[in-house]
Specification:
There is one protein chain. With about 400 residues, the chain is an alpha/beta fold.
Length: about 400
Amino acid sequence: MPKVSRPLPRPVVRLRPGREKSVFHRHPWIFSGAVAAWPDGLEDGELAAVAAADGRHLGYAYVNRRCSIAARLVAFGETDPRAAIRESLARAVALRRALFDPRRTNAVRLVNGEGDALPGLVADQYADTLALQISTLGMERLKPLVLETLVELTQPRAIYEKSDVAARYEEGLTDFVGLLYGRDFGPLVIIENGLRFHADIKRGQKTGLFLDQRDMRALVEELSAGRRVLNGFAYTGGFSVYAKRGGAARVVSADSSGGALQLARGNCALNGFPVAEEDFIEADMFAYLRAIEAAAFDFIILDPPAFARKREDALRAGRAYKDLNRLALAKIAPGGLILTCSCSHFVDEKLFGQVVFQAAAEAGRNVRILHRHRQALDHPVSVFHPEGGYLKSLLLSVD
């Protein structure tokens, strides 16, 4: 790809004294309170140079003065920002190609935001189709460059944008969903670790599937032989299909959505597993756990949607996670396993651990942690931006 040898002149955002330290440590976020002055004529969403209080050049960021995170760096040092974005996209795609054999797994996250030095951008590949999610104004303005580069790197049949995340509202953006490139398409069938799944980019949650749990699904397969498995919040039945391939004695999929359970049935059938109607339960998981007999299951999987959508929800979410885990701990058979997960960004690993401790204490069960979350390889987290790690999981052994 062509490289720009010298950055174009850009407006300069100057930081307050002492506020350049995080940028030197390659953290991509600059909060509004760190900015000493905004240059005249700078538009929100525009690329700008970033300088320390003493004038030292630090890098390039796109800005949005209406947000608490007022600037997000896409290039450190002198690298031209547009060239840096192209190079970051190329590195991201190359990493996934090195990690995954498309004959065995052809649905992967190609770009994971700050984890790939591309804040505000998520790109998932489902076979020959890409799904894009853009959450910031700056990345929205860079979308033509992103599209051009992704088409060049991956030659997709289609690129579909599914930008319907709450973060867009703070950025001054409305939701956008639609075809950006290529021919229109319907639901797809993808391969994950040799299993097949229906993926509906347009109507499914997130961009179609929860790719971030791929490695935990494989762990469930390893541990399911002979066990009675309850897959709570089953959605498309990913954990259920893996448990069946792992030799589970029985797998029950429970979800409050009848439509989700229809997807779960379809994915079981797609892989040649029998579909028994009594094993697909449309119910609220809290109510279902209260109603089942004790020791009915010896492996319970809890992978609920985010209970905390914003910071002020964290306390209420913590109570919900505690109640959910207490119910599962009370009902699991002695010697059973519980895989409990949280994708709530504002419930951090420490709080989630405290919640599980309180649930175990209230349930009166002896609980040991066997495993902490195995991060999917295509969801990298930058060591300079630990905030990018949002998914927590604990595998518990319950006496």
